[in-house]
Amino acid sequence: MEKYLVTIKFRYSDAIEFRYSDAPDRFDSTTRNKEITIGVFDAIDEAYTKGNEALTKLEGRFNLNPHYNKKERFSKNGGAFGSNKHLITNLRYLKTPFQFFAKITTLKFDSVESSIDDVLDSVKRYRDFKSADVE
Q1: Cβ-based neighbours of 112, under 8 Å, separated by 6 or more
Q2: Residue 44 CB-density burial (10 A; 0-12 exposed, 13-18 middle, 19+ buried)
Q3: Does the pTM exceed 0.85?
Q4: Between the CA of residue 131 and those of 32, 125, 135, what are the distances in Å?
Q5: Residue 29 belongs to a domain
Q6: What is the extent of the structural domain holding 31?
Q7: DSSP code at position 111
Q8: Which residues have a Cβ under 8 Å from the Cβ of 42 and sit 6 or more positions away?
């Protein structure tokens, strides 16, 4: 069984305050990450729809890059060579004061027993391959 997880990770700089007596009399900065989950969906089309709705909200607050001027969208065939597009960043797309990474991750659910069996079968195939290579 597969499900689809839609998330957006924000990466931004933030000022931190030293609260100790031996700290310098200034603020320093650090990079912070904040990741939010848009949802977990049974169908990939629903994940595309909800992910694209979240991107529309970002576009409502920030301008498109005038040199790129194209809206990015999650899609089945919008990626390289007609592949699916499951990762969108602001690098060319939006002019934001932070970085963001919107992505769709495929979650695969399987039993522990069958997963162990698959791994052991792979290990056996690899050992057989290596022993045949030596001979």
Answers
A1: none
A2: middle
A3: no
A4: 49, 10, 7
A5: yes
A6: 2-110
A7: -
A8: 3, 4
